[in-house]
Design a protein that fits this description.
The chain is mainly alpha-helical and about 120 residues long. About 55% of the residues lie in helices and about 5% in strands.
Length: about 120
């Protein structure tokens, strides 16, 4: 009887710890992804842009620079799966794989354009 009660308590504690570790690992993964995206944006993408609003579209020089960048950093083994640039309206102005141009802006993109973070 005591062994059964102890076993149940240990199993419940184990499940709670597993869930807690999973939530924490996800939180850390998202934070790391954000950090890497910010680093890529500030060191590799921003220098290629001419400082105009993205809603005005990209110049041919900007498009060429972004295409060259994506050849180097986008791929399944490089850690960057896709590169998309959006204007402040959330509309896609550049996409390395050509996707997203006709899609409605995602809530996450609109929140980022407004300067806030989307909840994790």
């Amino acid at each position: 009887m005591y062994a059964t009660v102890s076993l149940v308590a240990v199993v419940v504690l184990g499940v709670l710890l597993a869930v807690s570790y999973r939530v924490e690992a996800r939180r850390r993964g998202v934070a790391e992804g954000r950090s890497e995206a910010q680093l890529l944006a500030s060191t590799a993408v921003e220098p290629l842009l001419e400082g105009r609003p993205l809603t005005d579209g990209l110049t041919s020089a900007e498009k060429t620079g972004l295409k060259n960048l994506t050849k180097e950093v986008v791929g399944p083994t490089d850690g960057v799966l896709r590169l998309r640039l959006r204007g402040l309206t959330g509309q896609v102005v550049y996409s390395d794989d050509g996707s997203g141009f006709g899609d409605r802006p995602e809530d996450e993109a609109l929140a980022a354009a407004a300067g806030s973070r989307w909840p994790d």
